[in-house]
């Protein structure tokens, strides 16, 4: 069973700044993941050609199950508001997604509130004070060849300290689901703090950011120690260098 996490950067290539469906499809297909957590996912966004990136990723993997969870309506870095249940699906949305080749028994969505302060972020325009976006945890109870496995994905805040609060909130929410439990995502923290503040065990240690010459691991595959032995053992870890995104995906193969 292959588990993967990938911050898509809404499918944008660093080489030309463009989003092309074929590039995204090829990048995802190369992962050959049975379960894939995606972050920075666009739906109906002009900047990504109005693509449904979740559906595109599912098609690339031949995965019959997928779900997108919006964090905001509008476009990050421009005009946006927190997602609300009445939002029209045709409006530009941005969030996370989970794609699975395995059947899903049930879904769980947990809101992770945004940091209440603006924080300095280095952008192409220099150091800017940016308002943080709301965050969300998307989790599913899956019927896998390894038995029932609960898998969640999230993209935590870039605000130090606040991402710790969100991480603790996420693992508490995951523990309402059956073990073994796995969390996939861009947690905006290196592996040491992630392990210390979550209490969960990393299944892989590999630098994933920035994609060209990775120096730190922001993207993680974590397992809850409670019930982890039922999941199996890690037999392979990959961090391929796809033609899209400023993050490298993290792929973990597990066998029994």
Order of helices and strands: EHEHEEEEEEEEHEHEEEE
**Spatial order of strands in the largest sheet:** 4-3-5-2-1-15-14
The largest pleated sheet is described as:
7 strands, mixed
The termini sit apart by: 9 Å
Provide the gyration radius in Å. 17 Å
The helix content, as a percent range, equals 10-25%
What structural category arises from helix and sheet content?
Answer: alpha+beta
**CATH architectural grouping:** 4-Layer Sandwich
Residue fraction in strands: 35-45%
Describe this structure in words.
By secondary structure, this protein is an alpha+beta fold. The protein has one domain (2-255): Endonuclease/exonuclease/phosphatase (Deoxyribonuclease I, Chain A). It is built from 4 helices and 15 strands. A hairpin with a 2-residue loop joins strand 9 and strand 10 (147-155). Helix 1 (21-31) packs across helix 2 (53-61) and helix 3 (162-174) packs across helix 4. It starts with a strand and ends with a strand. The model has no long low-confidence stretch (mean pLDDT 94).
Quick description:
With 256 residues, the chain is of the alpha+beta class. The protein has 4 helices and 15 strands. The protein has a single domain, classed as 4-Layer Sandwich (Deoxyribonuclease I, Chain A).
Task: Write out key terms for the chains shown.
single chain; 256 residues; alpha+beta; Deoxyribonuclease I, Chain A; 4 helices; globular; Endonuclease/exonuclease/phosphatase family metal-dependent hydrolase; Endo/exonuclease/phosphatase; endonuclease
């Amino acid at each position: 069973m292959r588990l993967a996490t990938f911050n898509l950067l809404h499918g944008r290539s660093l080489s030309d700044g463009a989003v092309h469906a074929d590039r995204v499809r090829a990048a995802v297909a190369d992962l050959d993941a049975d379960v894939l957590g995606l972050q920075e996912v666009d739906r109906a966004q002009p900047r990504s050609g109005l693509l449904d990136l979740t559906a595109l990723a599912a098609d690339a993997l031949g995965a019959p199950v997928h779900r997108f969870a919006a964090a905001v309506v509008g476009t990050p870095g421009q005009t946006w508001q927190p997602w609300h249940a009445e939002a029209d699906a045709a409006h530009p949305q941005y969030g996370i997604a989970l794609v699975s080749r395995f059947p899903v028994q049930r879904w769980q969505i947990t809101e992770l509130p945004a940091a209440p302060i603006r924080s300095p972020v280095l952008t192409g325009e220099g150091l800017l004070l940016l308002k943080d976006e709301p965050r969300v945890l998307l989790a599913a109870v899956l019927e896998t060849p390894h038995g029932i496995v609960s898998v969640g994905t999230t993209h935590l805040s870039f605000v130090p300290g606040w991402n710790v609060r969100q991480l603790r909130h996420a693992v508490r929410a995951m523990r309402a689901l059956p073990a073994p439990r796995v969390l996939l995502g861009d947690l905006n923290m290196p592996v040491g703090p992630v392990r210390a503040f979550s209490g969960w065990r990393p299944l892989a240690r590999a630098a994933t950011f920035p994609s060209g010459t990775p120096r730190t691991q922001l993207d993680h595959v974590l397992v809850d120690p409670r019930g982890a032995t039922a999941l199996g053992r890690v037999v392979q870890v990959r961090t391929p260098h796809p033609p899209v995104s400023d993050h490298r995906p993290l792929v973990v193969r597990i066998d029994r």
